[in-house]
Amino acid sequence: MSATASLQSGAIAGIDDFPVALAWAPDGNSLVVGGGEGRLYRLSPQDGAITELGEHAPGVLELAWKPGAALLASSGQDGSVRLWDMDAAAGESRLLHRSPRWPAGLAWRSDGKALAFATGKDLLLIDAEGAPLRTLAGHAVPLTHVAWRGRDELLAAGNGALFVDRADSGAMEQFLLEGTPLTLSLSPDNKIAACGLADGSVNFRYINNRKRSRMSGYEGKVALTAWSANSRYLASASTGASSVVVWDFGSKGPEGSEPMQLNAHEERIESMAWQGSGLLASAGRDWRVVLWRPGPGSRKALDIQLLDGPAGMICWSPDGARLAVAQPSGTIRFFSLRAR
Questions:
Q1: Residues 335/289, Cβ–Cβ less than 8 Å
Q2: Which residues, including other chains, have CB under 8 Å from residue 238's CB and lie 6 or more apart?
Q3: Within a domain: residue 158?
Q4: How far is 278 from 266, CA to CA, in rounded Å?
Q5: Residues 6+ apart with CB under 8 A from 304
Q6: 4 lies in a domain?
């Protein structure tokens, strides 16, 4: 792709709820938005047409689209996990799980044959029909984040600890986290787990050789971390700053080096998302959506789009051709990527 790129404004839609979760369909032809008051909507990126799917009262927590299928998993504040059939009539879903605890870290395995999530100190694995596959228990702390590492391993994080669980044998290994994790991001090559911590640092754990690094100096809690598709760059942002901090894992890695500081926002950054070709989008309270291509000697914004209010969550379509931007007001905007 060209070194220069920009965003072109497209369809706009409005929902009657506060967006808290976004999930693109695998084919990129629709976007599902989950609301803080429990409503789910399916939107067309072509014309902004809206279909209300139903409710997940009293509020949606997370969404996870099954790979290569028309099935969407959702978790809610009622302690339930539901599965929505996107080929069926609006509002059709079935209950997969319910407990007094909020589910956390909803994640499908890459083959779509297992869905994992945390409830308290346990990791639950179920299939698409809701049948239990395995419960991974014995974690020392309640779990807040979950990620698959290949077919048979799961990463889970909770206050002060990172766990590596074997889904096949039930074996579990625990590692120290020097704080409360707000994020868990696994590099696409499955080698490094990055956790943004509430104490204003990022913890890097190299899974294979057990090496650990810690990067500090942030102005607030590190609430955002995201890997580039080639696993070279980790973008991060804290609650007290308007800069994107990018760590370079090329060559010898980030230890002892200075990160890239990307400066174009004037207020707190609310969301970041990498596009497959190496572009990074960020959105903030300053009404801005900014497009970057981080790299050696490349720290200037490629494009800045001004909205009519604060920006919230953002998400690239699977093919990287569109960017969805959800505003706290309920406005959902679609942008097309243009190379020049």
A1: yes
A2: 196, 200, 218, 219, 220, 221, 222, 223, 224, 245
A3: yes
A4: 24
A5: 264, 288, 289, 290, 291
A6: no
The answer to whether position 284 is within a domain reads no
From residue 143, alpha-carbon distances to 21, 243, 338 in Å are 19, 29, 40
How many CB atoms neighbour CB 110 within 10 A?
Answer: 12
One-letter amino acid identity for 31? L
Long-range CB pairs of 276-280, under 8 A, 24+ apart, other chains included: 276/229, 276/316, 276/320, 277/1, 277/229, 277/320, 278/1, 278/228, 278/229, 278/230, 279/1, 279/5, 279/320, 279/337, 280/226, 280/228, 280/233, 280/235, 280/244, 280/246
Question: What is the rounded distance in angstroms from the CA atom of residue 3 to the CA atom of residue 126?
Answer: 43
Cα distances (Å, whole numbers) of residue 60 to 20, 35, 147, 156, 237? 7, 6, 19, 21, 24
Residue 297 lies in a domain: no
Assigned token pair, 275 = 């596009």
Note whether 266 and 283 are within 8 A (CB): no
For residue 141, give its domain range. Answer: 18-244+251-257+268-279
* CATH code of the domain in which 204 resides: 2.130.10.10
Along the 340 residues of the chain, how does pLDDT read in single tens digits? 457 899 999 999 999 999 999 999 999 999 999 999 999 999 999 999 999 999 888 999 999 999 999 999 999 999 999 999 998 766 689 999 999 999 999 999 999 999 999 999 999 999 988 899 999 999 999 999 999 999 999 999 999 999 999 999 999 999 999 999 999 999 999 999 999 999 999 999 999 988 999 999 899 999 999 999 999 999 999 998 999 999 999 877 788 788 999 999 999 999 999 999 999 999 999 999 999 999 988 889 999 999 999 999 999 999 999 999 999 999 999 999 998 7
How many independent structural domains does the chain possess?
Answer: 1
